[in-house]
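Narrative of activities, Objective 1.

The group set out to show that a structural description can be obtained from nothing but a protein's sequence at a throughput compatible with the screening campaign. Below is one input-output pair from the validation batch, recorded exactly as produced.
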Amino acid sequence: MRSSERPGPGLVIVTVLVVLTVVNLSVSATWWVRSGEPVAARVPTTQSSPRDPVASRPSPRSSAPSSPRSGTGSAQDRATTGIPAAEAPSGTPAPASEDLARTWTAPTDMPTTGLLLHVDIPGVRSHFPARRALLYLPPAALTADPPDLPVAVLLSGQSRGAGPTDVEDGGHIAATADALALTHRGLAPIVVVPDQLGPDSGNPLCVDGPLGNSRTYLEDDVPAWVTAHLQVQSGPSAWTIGGFSQGGTCAIQIGAGDPGRFGNLIDVSGEAAPSRGTVATTVAEGFDGDVAAYRAAVPAAVLAEHTPYRSSDAFFAVGQDDRVFGPVMPVMARAAQAAGMHVDSWVVPGGGHNWTTAAAGLAAGLSWETARIGLAPA
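Output recorded for this entry:
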């Protein structure tokens, strides 16, 4: 499935091979191997310990993408989070989108790599008890006069102990984004990895329900925090939501359900429906017994409810050897295409249902959308 406006699978594969080579994940050890060793997250050592609580106090503001940007919290707030002061939004409205591939000139003193931080994104509206998020700032964001950048919200899968750090430990997202920035003059999306699972990796199914208001957290609280703290573009074409496994399912639920916020979706090895085991258990625990609410949260139903999509893009990937979720991917890709989205998909050679596949799939999705979000020539 291909969009005539996007690079074909061959170009995507070549680009991802380059990205993974720069990331220092060898093709023989990572691309076709079914599992890999996690690596430690890169975090700054000059700020407070990344394991300590962060006192993030974002300024009250609307989460609407078109709202003017006010200054973010106090100087102490920014020093505690580790976000550079230059990233503080100005009082002017953020651009909906920007062709940075054409307009951006990298300064000579721009860093060669980005910065990965641990930050708190509080559930101001949702009251969702999220754990610490990851925030990646590309080299362009670390300059004295950073541009307004696109945003990628990425989500982990769900298993015992799963959480945002998996996207770095297993998905190598900082090195992947650094590699993309290396090929695009320091430009890459600002990557935010929030906790959609909650304490104990509880999996509230990316809905508002008895297990917590995960949907409101992702749709309202996370975008509000991002726009209050960072110089980012505001239009849906500049905002991506993606994830692996349960995170991929969640990305379709949230992104397809809110196309005015998220114009781009990346689903790597996602499920056909939110799940806590059996359908009966899922309905009872996650939807308080409401079967209709469960059916409405199934990604295919969300797509059908909001069709037609006028300007949404979706990228799907799955491992070649994934016998459980492999059959789901083409069904979801066809459903997204039928709903009007520009769709492309890729089967990772030799991949299973693991973070080796997730790293490759997320890298492919981010690479595929670079022209769409203005980081590469169309």
